[in-house]
Amino acid sequence: MVNLVSQPHSSNPTDRFYGRRKGRPLRVRKSRLMAELLPQLEITLPKDKAECANLDPHALFSPPMKNLWLEIGFGGGEHLAQQAARHPDIGLIGCEPFRNGIASLLDHIDRMQIKNIRIFPEDARHLLDSLPAASIDRCFVLFADPWPKTRHAERRFIGPENIVRLTRVLKPGAALSLATDDATLAGWMRQTLATAPDFICTRDVPTPPDDWIATRYEQKGRAAGRACVYLEYERIDQAVALSK
After folding, report:
1. What is the pLDDT of residue 13?
2. Which of 127, 138, 169, 172 has a Cα-to-Cα distance from 120 of 20 to 30 A?
3. CATH number for position 127
4. What is the pLDDT of residue 46?
5. How many domains does the chain have?
6. What does residue 137 show for φ and ψ, rounded to 5 degrees?
7. How far apart are CA 124 and CA 145, in angstroms?
8. Is 210 tagged catalytic?
9. Would you list the DSSP string of 83-119?
10. Is 4 within a domain?
11. Residue 195 structural domain
């Protein structure tokens, strides 16, 4: 599973990052891509937190992109790379702290000659806190680590604190696309978003959309006999919704 986080960094030990950052040693090609290609695509935030608020995501892409999509925890990068290839006029930002997953995405980018992906190789919460309000047109959180033990439930990425972050950065009308093969996590996400007044559920089915791009984690889950759930929520404008 993709390792994601739910709490911001602070001096509180319960707020630390829980996901993996490193796996098996990289082979020569991927090590080279990490050294040479990643610096060209990497999003780096200023050390001064006050300056982080000035991040302009549109300025990350040249030429400018029509829309901006975000994938949090892109795993091996299959979904992100294919979405970018299908939509060359959309800028895609991928967040993933796992070194081996980043290297895998870079391999896809290099082989497919993709130009419209940028990578934030750190805790996604830092990027969410730096993005301007209403700057993202779509967000994917696919097959995240379910943190199945009850005492670890607050580590799940889709939780109250991160829903506040997503509410801020997603444009009204933007889609939040979720998928999992874990029934407990599916129920947790439904419950969390049911209490979020700025989101309405537009899809909750066991079959993917016709244009779906499978991830390696999805394929592993299906191979193990686990049923998948595909959820989609729309970020609504409360003022408009209340006026209807």
Report:
1. 38
2. 172
3. 3.40.50.150
4. 80
5. 1
6. -90, -20
7. 14
8. no
9. HHHH-TTEEEEEE---HHHHHHHHHHHHHHT--SEEE
10. no
11. 13-243
